[in-house]
Amino acid sequence: MIETDILIIGAGPTGLFTVFEAGLLKLKCHIIDALPQPGGQLSELYPKKPIYDIPGLPDVLAGDLVNNLMEQIKQFQPGFTLSETAETIDKLVDGTFIVTTNKGTKHQAKAIAIAGGLGTFEPRKPEIDRISFYEEKGVEYFVKDPELFRDKKIVIAGGGDSALDWSIFLADVASEVTLIHRRNEFRGALDSVEKLQEYKKMGLVNLITPAEVISLHGEDHLNAITINKDGNQETIKTDYFIPLFGLTPKLGAIANWGLEIEKNAIKVNNALDYQTNIPGIYAIGDVNTYPGKLKLILCGFHEATLMCQSVYQRINPGKKYVLKYTTVSGVDGFDGTRKEAEKAVVKSIE
Amino acid sequence: MSQDVTIIITDRKGVKHEVQAPTDMNLNLMELIRMYELAEEGTIGVCGGMAMCASCQCYVLNDVLKTERNDDEEAMLSEAYHVKDDSRLGCQIPITAEIDGLTIEIAPEQ
């Protein structure tokens, strides 16, 4: 059982920044996310796109913002349960919660912060007969552990950044990489497209376009796929098929937690602390709704900050908290580090 | 003062709406649909308008629109569901004076 003060559901920017604000109040956090890496939409959808409305950062790439947030929170040693989704929640008599994931991992927390953004990202599955039968038997929608593909033959399908980047990365891991896309054009960062071009010339990646995978074969495990290219069918032997057609968000199991939902978002009390209709469960960032709500990262940061104060009061009833400024008080990490402003000297100049 | 244009939108339940769209707010068709709440929040404009999700896919029902799909749109639609020849992404269609009278139908959810 993982024990923590605040269990954060969602490792997007709002969830990550919660760790910092909680840390200032000496509250420990653990984060659950369905994706294999932190960052939420920023890492998964648009890591190489700029954001212009983060206060104090005239422009920042989404991926860099995630890296910066990870750097900012590391002193507070957050725990992560990645590639798992929060499924069920139980409230115990002592007011704490037990959240269990789809893989059975249990987390006990004094408060829950749902920072789930648009919801759990689920892969968009291509419409291929019996594809669900082959899931985890040769069909993978994410690359969670590249070692799974060590010395194996793999076929990747898709035309975006993930398909490009994983084809390039796995070319050094797998014994054979084939990339199939419905069009001749790929949409991705220029350096990725150019690198793939180079890999194709060097024979490190077999590129087949325009083509699509139409059927899968194998008795217990995938062993081949059939593609359609210009009306001609061809069967290719492979150990794995990785369709990377993007992700769609779904509110998922959280929708069944008894929370008040409006317009696919969780209703919260914005006049106070972003608490939901269930005391101890908060919703912050894009996942919540209230009159005047704006789905902006900067609003998520604000909501996270106020929420942490409320959690502090919940965990320490009756204890008065005095707001402190990091510039004045410094930051004491849970890892023993301390950050503080350099003291000014008082010295006469001769 | 810029003129509003009229856009005719059939929602996912098959109900037809004739809406007035301002041309001076830098809006696109996806944002117009959200503005009038013609599709449930969370089911449209999911990626925010980056042509990365196809949740704002529409079918263009008349010949008012003179622009073609751009590269990003073409790439996304090549991987989306329920795509037809007249499919476009609402987020890639700016609301301008030229599209007065545009008639569209919102495609089913992805």
What report would you give on this structure?
- The complex is a heterodimer of chains A (350) and B (110).
- By secondary structure, chain A is of the alpha/beta class.
- Helix content of chain A is 21%, strand content 28%.
- Chain B has two helices and five strands, in the order E-E-H-E-H-E-E.
- In chain B, strands 2-1-5-3-4 form a five-stranded mixed β-sheet, covered by helices on one side.
- In chain B, a hairpin with a 5-residue loop joins strand 1 (4-10) and strand 2.
- In chain B, 35% of the residues are buried.
- The interface between A and B is medium-sized, with 24 and 19 residues.
> Helix-strand pattern of chain B, N to C?
EEHEHEE
Please give the count of helices of chain A: 7
CATH topology-level name of the largest domain in chain A = FAD/NAD(P)-binding domain
Gap between N and C termini of chain A: 64 Å
Number of strands of chain A: 23
Portion in strands of chain A: 25-35%
User: What would CATH call the homologous superfamily of chain B?
Assistant: Beta-grasp domain
The CATH class of chain B turns out to be Alpha Beta
- Choose one word for the global shape of chain B: globular
Q: What is the oligomer described by this structure? A: heterodimer
Q: What gyration radius of chain A follows from the Cα positions, in whole Å?
A: 23 Å
Poorly predicted segments of chain B: none
Secondary structure class of chain A reads alpha/beta
What fraction, in percent, of the residue positions of chain A are helical?
10-25%
SS content category of chain B: alpha+beta
Q: Total number of β-strand segments of chain B?
A: 5
Whole-number average pLDDT of chain B?
A: 93
CATH topology (level 3) name of chain B: Ubiquitin-like (UB roll)
Secondary-structure element string of chain A? EHEHEEHEEEEEEHEHEEEEEEEEEEHHEE
Kindly give the count of domains of chain B: 1
